[in-house]
Automatic annotation (TrEMBL):
CDD domains: metallo-hydrolase-like_MBL-fold (cd06262). The keyword Phosphoprotein does not apply. Its cofactor is Zn(2+). This is MBL fold metallo-hydrolase. It comes from Rhodocytophaga rosea. Gene3D superfamilies: Ribonuclease Z/Hydroxyacylglutathione hydrolase-like (3.60.15.10). Keywords: Hydrolase, Metal-binding, Zinc.
Amino acid sequence: MIQIQTFTFNPLQENTYILYDETRACVIIDPGCYEKQEKQALEEFIQTNKLTVSKLLNTHGHIDHVLGNAFVKQKFGVELYIHPLDEATLRAVETYAPNWGFMQYEPAQPDHYLNEGDTVTFGNTTLEVLFVPGHAPGHIAFYNSAQQLCISGDVLFRGSIGRTDLPGGNFNTLIESIQTKLFPLGDEVVVYPGHGGTTTIGYEKKYNSFLT
């Protein structure tokens, strides 16, 4: 059974997720840890719970979701997975990070690519990769059907959606991604977004003004 630990890191209040199961294998999704104490919090949780990091996953390559990529790769000796269409988004972070105040940002390059329909496995757990562009050109989400949960990144939030005014963003594409990839998962699916609290597909269908 998947257990999920959420950390909220950096000034942009980004959600970093650790998913682990009874085997103590885990994946880290979108490490936004930048300050020393944030990195320590991530490391201490993994050590305290005797977890073994299997993979590093990025839903997309925007700065707030990747600040800790290099730290995670180096500390835990794991490889980075991202959609190929978002590699350019990731590589661009090094150029603009100082303008956002992240003077000590350390870039990390992807080792593997994930595409629609691929699966990610760790321990006894399988995550399905969903291609959900619109916020970023190569944005992906991770879905587990057994527990009806979805790590959505910056696609769908409680009562809102991801911004589309950044390079590679497109409002119509984002809405299509939500309606054709996330909504069909079912009303009971719990969504763990890149910012803010959890929600469900059913709640967003009924109350999200962007989608009703």
